[in-house]
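stage 2 :: seqdesign
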């Protein structure tokens, strides 16, 4: 629509209401010929410019700046038009008329002349364009004045709506924060309830176990009471038989009365005295019965105590005889696994002749002489204990538990698992996934925690720290570290107190035996393994699980410190048996393994020589291997050592089994001197 020029008064009104909503332009374009437009058409056009459309909405004040550009009417160069725009805000810039009068200047000058009494020039008053402009100004001013009140009211309503929406938004945000806080509190409460439920379950299980123990104890006491009652009944029957015999004697004396009149008085007196004696004995039968019950209970208690003391005495005597300068050696033969039953070579001829003490193992090997004759060689070995293939993990640990107990008393204890690849070393030390197949490591840790908790009533408090290392190609790796093995060098340090530490390794405090399963799984995933001719997953390194136990007695002030080393040695097979000669990496691994095992044998032999000649200083080559240097304080002096030799039952491994048995015999014949507990008395 063509735009019209507005006087300065309309421009000032537009500036004052710049925040008013825009108006849509609904009027028709003005006639190009200004002489043909009537006064009514002028008023209608002015009203259309100001009045808003029915569908218009409130818009922000910035809409004033979106004005349409001015354009000049092609029919009349003196009339300025404006392109159609989206708002009805009066334009600020109007092209000046050809007469040279600036926008709004004509009205101001005319008013000023009227007030000063001077007349406007006739040429201006008679100008039809000026008259049309005055008519439009008057019409626009009237319409705009009538709409100001309504527009202001609408703007107030819109502002109120905006304020109410903002208030509602703030309320919603507040409610959202409160809801999130309540949800967080609910989750915390749920977590606390879950923890409390788990704790209650533990308490309930413990009480059930205690009640079951009490029930078994009461059943034993009931059986003992029944046995005592049976014995008392037998005694009472004997007393009744004695009383019957006395009555018979009395009757016999009465029958003699006819023939022995002279002895009648004496017999009567005798009968009376005997009757009194019987009554006295019958009267004291109840007292004798109570005394008998008390004596029987005391006798039973003394017998049980004597039995327990005898067992302890025998175990201690046996340990003293074996640990006075001796390293204990156990032999364990694993059972045949499923895949080995179909092998052509079959099982090796292994016998266990000592069925009572289980300390002997016999191997039979056949060979062909130079003359072609078959020759059978029978080799017998004796050790501290021999475990047959059907032996369970519990039975093995029963023999090891006495050494584990020594750690609580302040001794350094080392348990080796030695043998060829696939002989069951890792199973013996680490075990399987079920409770029945648990190995020496989890069982030893559980026993130490149980013993430590039992010693609390006597004032002892114990702390335990665990460490898991690997020795691979004479390099120490931390199996509990984070990420891959780094290139940092781990140094072994021995202080004057006999404590051994390894730099830059992880040592974890153990608060319960359940942590051991996690440590073992983590260590197994990081240990170096490879395939050989002996096993598809052969351990190519020595693993050393070290458990340090420190105790202090708050009553007596005593302190003690012990160390338990559970070592799973790498496979001890020869280079020709493992097939590692054709693989550079496997060859290097096998050489490092055999070197460390040879160094271990040298250290044990040197310890034996040192034990035999206590007055002469003997050099112990601990530094020949990282394994022996790491275990320096746990092999000699203040230590107890046990080697568990694991053997394969297959005939194909018979030669390796014989080599392992000969090495174990050499270890078993070594004397290392009397161990002493690392225990400090309280300062006086």
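stage 2 :: out
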């Amino acid at each position: 629509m063509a735009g019209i020029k507005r006087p300065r008064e309309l421009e000032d009104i537009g500036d004052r209401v710049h925040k008013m909503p825009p108006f849509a332009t609904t009027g028709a374009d003005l006639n190009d010929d200004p002489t043909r437009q009537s006064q009514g058409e002028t008023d209608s056009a002015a009203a259309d410019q100001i009045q808003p459309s029915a569908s218009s909405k409130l818009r922000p004040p910035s809409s004033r700046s979106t004005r349409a550009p001015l354009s000049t009417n092609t029919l009349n160069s003196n009339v300025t038009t404006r392109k159609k725009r989206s708002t009805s805000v009066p334009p600020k810039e109007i092209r000046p008329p050809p007469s040279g009068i600036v926008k709004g200047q004509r009205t101001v000058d005319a008013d000023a002349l009227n007030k000063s009494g001077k007349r406007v020039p006739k040429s201006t008053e008679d100008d039809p364009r000026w008259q049309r402009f005055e008519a439009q100004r008057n019409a626009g001013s009237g319409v705009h004045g009538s709409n100001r009140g309504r527009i202001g009211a609408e703007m107030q309503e819109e502002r109120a709506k905006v304020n109410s929406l903002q208030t509602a938004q703030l309320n919603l945000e507040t409610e959202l924060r409160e809801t999130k806080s309540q949800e967080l509190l609910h989750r915390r409460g749920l977590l606390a309830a879950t923890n409390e439920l788990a704790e209650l379950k533990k308490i309930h299980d413990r009480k059930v176990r205690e009640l079951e123990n009490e029930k078994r104890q009461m059943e034993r006491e009931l059986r003992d009471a029944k046995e005592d009652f049976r014995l008392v009944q037998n005694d009472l029957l004997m007393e009744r038989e004695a009383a019957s015999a006395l009555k018979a004697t009395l009757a016999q004396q009465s029958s003699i009365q006819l023939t022995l009149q002279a002895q009648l008085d004496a017999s009567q007196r005798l009968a009376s005295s005997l009757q009194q004696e019987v009554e006295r004995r019958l009267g004291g039968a109840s007292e004798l019965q109570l005394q008998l019950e008390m004596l029987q209970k005391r006798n039973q208690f003394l017998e049980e105590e004597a039995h327990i003391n005898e067992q302890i005495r025998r175990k201690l005597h046996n340990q003293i005889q074996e640990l006075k300068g001796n390293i204990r050696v156990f032999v364990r033969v694993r059972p045949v696994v499923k895949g080995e039953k179909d092998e052509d070579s079959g099982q090796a001829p292994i016998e266990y002749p000592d069925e009572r003490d289980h300390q002997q193992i016999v191997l039979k090997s056949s060979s062909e002489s130079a003359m072609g004759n078959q020759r059978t060689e029978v080799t017998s070995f004796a050790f501290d204990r021999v475990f047959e293939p059907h032996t369970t993990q519990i039975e093995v640990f029963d023999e090891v538990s006495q050494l584990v107990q020594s750690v609580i008393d302040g001794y350094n204890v080392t348990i080796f698992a030695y043998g060829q690849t696939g002989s069951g070393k890792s199973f013996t030390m680490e075990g399987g996934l079920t409770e029945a197949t648990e190995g020496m490591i989890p069982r030893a840790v559980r026993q130490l925690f149980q013993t430590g908790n039992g010693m609390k009533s006597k004032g002892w408090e114990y702390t335990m720290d665990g460490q898991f290392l690997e020795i691979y190609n004479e390099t120490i790796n931390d199996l509990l570290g984070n990420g891959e093995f780094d290139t940092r060098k781990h140094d072994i340090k021995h202080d004057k107190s006999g404590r051994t530490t390894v730099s830059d390794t992880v040592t974890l405090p153990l608060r319960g035996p359940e942590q051991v399963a996690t440590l073992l799984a983590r260590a197994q995933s990081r240990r170096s393994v490879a395939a050989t001719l002996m096993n598809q997953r052969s351990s190519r390194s020595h693993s050393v699980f070290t458990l340090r136990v420190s105790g202090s007695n708050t009553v007596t002030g005593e302190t003690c410190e012990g160390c338990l080393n559970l070592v799973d040695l790498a496979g001890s097979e020869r280079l020709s048996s493992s097939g590692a000669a054709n693989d550079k990496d496997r060859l290097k691994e096998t050489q490092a393994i055999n070197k460390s095992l040879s160094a271990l044998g040298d250290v044990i032999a040197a310890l034996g020589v040192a034990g035999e000649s206590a007055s002469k200083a003997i050099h112990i080559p601990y530094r020949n291997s990282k394994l022996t240097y790491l275990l320096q304080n746990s092999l000699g002096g203040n230590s107890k050592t046990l080697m568990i030799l694991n053997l394969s039952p297959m005939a194909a491994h018979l030669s390796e089994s014989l080599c392992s048995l000969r090495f174990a015999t050499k270890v078993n014949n070594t004397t290392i001197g009397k161990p002493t507990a690392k225990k400090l008395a309280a300062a006086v």
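stage 3 :: structure notes
- The chain has 16 helices and 19 strands.
- The first strand starts at residue 70 and ends at 72.
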